[in-house]
Amino acid sequence: MAQNMKIDVHHVTRVEGHGNITVNAKNGVLEECRLDIVETPRFFEAMLRGRPYTEASHITSRICGICAVGHATASLRASENALGVELSEQAWLLRKLIFFGEMLDSHVLHTYMLVAPDFFKVGSVIPLAGIAPDAVLRALRMKKLAGDLCAIIGGRHTHPIAMSVGGFTHLPTVDELKAIRARLIDARKDVDETVALFKTLPWPKFERETEYVALSKPDEYAFIDGTITTTDGGKYHLIDYRKVTNEKCVEHSSAKHTAHKRDSYMVGALARFNVNYKQLNPKAKEAADALGIKPICTNPYYNTVAQVVEIVHSVEEAIKICDELIARGIKKEEAYKFQGKGGKGVGSCEVPRGILFHNYEIGDDGKIVNANCIIPTGQNMANIEADMRALVPQILDQGQEKVTFALEMLVRAYDPCISCSVHFLDVKFV
Amino acid sequence: MKPILILGLGNPLQGDDGVGCRVVEELQRGVIASGAIAKHPEGKQSPTTNLEIASSQSAAPLAGKTLLEMTQWHDIEVMDGGTPGVGLLNFFEGRMRVIIVDAAEMGIAPGEFRRFTPEEVTLTGAKERFSLHRSGVADALALAHELRIQLPEIVFFGVQPASVEWRDALSPQVQAAVPRVIEAVLNELK
Fold first, then answer.
1. Are residues A90 and A13 in the same domain?
2. Does any domain span residue A429?
3. Does ipTM surpass 0.90 in this model?
4. Is residue B123 less than 8 Å (CB to CB) from chain A?
């Protein structure tokens, strides 16, 4: 077969945002291999400057419709760390509960609607619904549950209006928590069927060692706060996040690239799984066994499999938190009042796609002086390209169609949220 | 069975794409005074930008009546559905009848509106172009069809936009149409 190949996928489908895959191989040698990000810049960091800190989480939750709670959470933690605000135990439980709601929503969307169609050889979830209606109905059911869970804690389905610096402006009732808990218990059937389904899919075989980066905590599978931990031995306080990210601009991409000990690193469900496997709850570990994934897994296609494990973990943890909140009862708490002293802080959480950083400087007038947001998908860009460069030569002889499909599936496996990842360049005319 | 639902769809930040939300907002205020849509008697403000609704002769017959009075023989729910994508199907669950108000590209004059049912038209939302970020009504209905989900009786009021550019206000033509659309929706309930 000809070992010359030119691949140009304009706007990869079933990813959030716009990216083009460009591959050029001559005589079996890879000359060009890029994921071009063509999404327009978002300007969020600039938008925050001069705004009162109280607005930050509401503005930045608009970075994304699917990780709105994730952005809001990182944003609030950044402000809370900058201003020295402590959260009550109730507030922590509620923050975690809504976080699990979003994790469930996003992972169900990605696994069932963005990835599964590839294995059924269809273009989207609509024809998938025709050939596997039970699976799609299940996905819609789980998404509805997840959305409703977010709504009772966050005040609405998307962009959590009830989350604020220091806690919540609106609290769920014990009855609402009991009702959602009952639905979560019912959802265990759907979760089991999810594991059963994804266990049968023929995941592409491809291994490439890389560095995996995730938040970690000693006694729980970390999603909010923690120590930045890498499989190459990195361990950092949140304030030192830049020592891990080392962002740099690249010509073909409106998203910056990051690197730590190697030329790239991976964040997301697979990274979390590799770093924090020990802290998964027993049901999640069982699911991992059933799905055939164990740490350290170096197959990027298994990021989706790790997400299925996290679906199991999230539902069980959400039930536990509901139990605890129902037993404690819900108490109205005093809102935080700004003390007239600003500060600098970093907030970090593991949104569905990986580790997210919000870093704010707040002035003594309560206005934001500076903001920096480093999005997980941006941190994956260099790793995706490194994977592509390693994969293409291995499968070049399979022909253009198969190689293109393999690359599209590879990009999809990362669950990239491209719109979130683009940045604006600081231009100085000399 | 859940009450009849009047569902406004669209993005109020994209000009006339917000017409569905605007109609629902006015219905939620619930009072139609002669010649113009008045504010809620308790002075509840709309959370969105203040909008001056042009006075309309045709609103006069409904003058002084509340939404409740107009529809007291039905159970009615009025909701702003935003841009729900496939989540639209959640609004249909357990309902017998849903009236949707949305901007629709129909090739007619801006501000004009049409009443139609899904069966009467071809709603464009290609299966291949399906994107979870931009999936709309057509995609949700296509999904329902594939899943053989029992749908309620659906009636659309499509309002022709003048512009759906980034702007948090309706065009004058569509603004002027809002009272007429409201009247048509209320007549639908009789």
1. no
2. no
3. no
4. no
Mean pLDDT of chain A, nearest integer: 92
Chain B partners within 8 Å of A114 (Cβ): 132
Element housing A259 (H / E): none
Annotated domain spans of chain B = 4-188
Tokens at residue B122, please?
A: 């071809």
Please identify among residues 139-158 of chain B the ones whose CB lies closer than 8 Å to any CB of chain A: 139, 142-143, 146-148
> What pLDDT, in 10s, does the model give residues A340-399?
999 999 999 999 999 999 999 999 999 999 999 998 988 999 999 999 999 999 998 898
- Do the Cβ atoms of A144 and B90 come within 8 Å? yes
- The 10s digit of each residue's pLDDT in A376-392 is 988 999 999 999 999 99
**Are A137 and B147 in contact (CB < 8 Å)?**
yes
B168 at A interface, C-beta within 8 A:
no
A76 and A114 co-located in one domain: yes
Instruction: Inspect the interface and report whether the beta carbons of A133 and B147 lie closer than 8 Å.
Output: yes
Mutation target for A interface from B132, B134, B137, B168: give the one with most A CBs within 10 A.
Answer: B132
Tally of domains in chain A: 2
In a domain, A427, yes or no: no
Q: How many CB pairs under 8 A join A and B?
A: 45
Each residue's pLDDT tens digit, B151-162 = 999 999 999 999
Which residues 6+ apart lie within 8 Å of B91 measured at CB? B5, B7, B79, B81, B84, B98
B63: amino acid identity, one letter = A
Residues A167/A333, Cβ–Cβ less than 8 Å? yes
Contact A170, A91 (CB under 8 A): no
Partners of A137 on chain B (C-beta within 8 Å) are 147
Dihedral of CA atoms B9, B14, B16, B18 in degrees, nearest 10, equals: 30
Q: Quote the percentage of chain A above a pLDDT of 70.
A: 95
Residues A148, A33 share a domain: no
Reading the block at residue A196, the tokens are 């059963």
Which range has the top average pLDDT, A115-124, A290-299, A421-430?
A: A290-299
CATH class, domain B4-188, is: alpha beta
